[in-house]
Amino acid sequence: CELAQRPRTTMEPGRAEAEQERALRKEAHYGPALYERIVLRGGRLIALGEELEMDWRRKGPRSGARVPSRLDLALGDPRGRELRRAIEADLAALKEGDLLPGELECVRGWRAWSRGDARGALGSMHAAVERDAMLEEAIEALATFRIELDGEAAVETVVALLTEAAKRDAGYLGYAKRRGEIRLSKGLVLRARGEDPFEWYRSALND
Predict the structure, then answer these.
(1) Closest by alpha carbon to 162, among 181, 149, 186, 148?
(2) Considering Cα of 108, then 110, then 116, then 121, what sign does the dihedral take?
């Protein structure tokens, strides 16, 4: 709902979730609130994967070990499995007729992501952005999913995507925040390889 969306778009997810819960207590199948809750829970699933990847790297994996994907890490954790069940429940309660075309593709993307289908999730988010170029949640998810699938090779493309989105919607701070996180991550990768990360760190701080 609009009250739930407002704090989410101003980067206050905790308040957004509280607004949704209030709306859904009044009307359990209210489509806009269910949509917002799916978006926020999807964001929590992404954040969990990032947290678990950092923990995995801090523990010092054995030499030659395959780096697990953030999605695999999240869905392999009890908290991630609980989020998946919660997303599935909201998807089951949601009526497709309550959504705009871009939003419909967006929830299809979260359905795929919560089921471990990163490629399908990427395709759905791409379709969502094609249908609505101002759909912030789809643009951010598209950037995240592309990094998940293509890793370091996708960084410059994703930075360009977020930069263009920020130009179209200068009032939304989430693009700069996500771009800064991606630039910082790129710098950390370079540093781990013994390469100079300075420019990536500098641009991350600017974001």
Answers:
(1) 181
(2) positive
